[in-house]
Amino acid sequence: MTPVIALVGRPNVGKSTLFNCLTRTRDALVADWPGLTRDRKYGEGKLGEQPYIVVDTGGVSGYEEGLDSEMAEQSYAAIQEADFVIFLVDARDGVTASDHSLANHLRQAGKPMQLVVNKVDGLNEDTVLNDFYELGLGDPFPLAASHNRGVTSLITDVLDGFPDAEPVDTEALYGQGIRLAIVGRPNVGKSTLVNRMLGEERVVVYDHPGTTMDSIAIPFTRDEINYTLIDTAGIRRRKSVREAVEKFSIIKTLQAIQSANVVILVLDARDGVVEQDLHMLHHVLKSGRSVVMAVNKWDGMSEEQKDEVRRGLNRRLDFMGWADLHFISALHGTNVGHLFKSAQRAYEAATSQWSTHFLTELMQGIVQEHQPPMVNGRRIKLRYAHLGGRNPPVIVVHGNQVDKLPGSYKRYMENTFREVLELRGTPVRLEFRSGDNPYASTSNKRKQRR
């Protein structure tokens, strides 16, 4: 299980800076859910082979009113969702009443946590840390997030309390068949689509209890093909769960994407493609999962409106030309059946297997059609190719000077491999590796003799 780590503290104590250090990127997933007064940032990091999810929460002082009070409630909900809490305080401000208030809340929550004193750069650490023992949260950890000092030691200590990541047997966890995860923003029609997909004729469905990843797996059969629908957070109608907790369920959605073979991304035809859709799509592609896109609520729109939506989709999703796009009505069932055909085709493409001989011949044909460029008077040579992985397909190309291949040529090879291999619905990754020259040492010795 991937641990979820929440960063909490007063405003301006350095939570976002630490978030960027832990994820090693500023390209974090932003959950711009309706009703939120502030954006929430979710990111993934890895220490060695141990992955983790980080949640950057809004600042909490304990004395919020109005909109700030709603924002604080979201932060408190994140604490409940997390497996571990990093409580940040400001070394330069010292212990404040807000720190005491939040410390009391964390003690009541009973979550594993670490008190972190940020911005200790330029200060006497021993003197500063002594002041924070009065919070009663154990030994404080010194940190200078803006200089990335102490970050590695902090995350190492945090992850020591979690078991090492082990490969997940998804077939044992979710059952056999094509694993489908339906994801999308709130109110785009995911629940209606799930019910429609499970309620058609020739569908045999039975309940499956929640898994260790806290998502619900629903195995079913359609046209003699086995599927497992991974019910991502937000699909279930849990009336007893507070709205604040529901909005933080994106963590479970990220985990469901990792466990799927094919992701069906649901878009709202009336909203078009918004930033949150692109952020979610970015995470799906980063995970290497196959994609089928469904534009829901297509019914009741005029032809003029439909044309405008198509133009917007073509403009914002031009980089997804390899993925099937369906215009559906989950409410009335229009074109929902086509999603299964696209999902099956994407799954077959993602899990296909080709011999080294076949891929090498295909690569040679690509090279003959368009030769790699010359570098320093020498032609870049590509020797052979083989399959390096599946779901998504990874094609490894060996040669010399491959690190000097221009991006345009790599894209040319990727597009040609995709077209010839008919890789519809799945991303494909090309890895280029240079082979060592077996005569390099002999050549160097000759030069030394001269």
TrEMBL record:
Pfam families the UniProt entry points to: KH_dom-like, MMR_HSR1
Coiled coil: none
A single MF term (Gene Ontology): ribosome binding
Task performed by this protein: GTPase that plays an essential role in the late steps of ribosome biogenesis.
Source organism (scientific name): Natronospirillum operosum
Name of this protein: GTPase Der
Organism taxonomic ancestry: Bacteria, Pseudomonadati, Pseudomonadota, Gammaproteobacteria, Oceanospirillales
Ligand binding (GTP 1): 9-16, 56-60, 118-121
Ranges of residues in domain EngA-type G: 3-166, 178-351
Binding site for GTP 2: 184-191, 231-235, 296-299
Entry keywords, A to Z: GTP-binding, Nucleotide-binding, Repeat, Ribosome biogenesis
GO biological process, one term: ribosome biogenesis
Domain of life: Bacteria
Subunit relationships: Associates with the 50S ribosomal subunit.
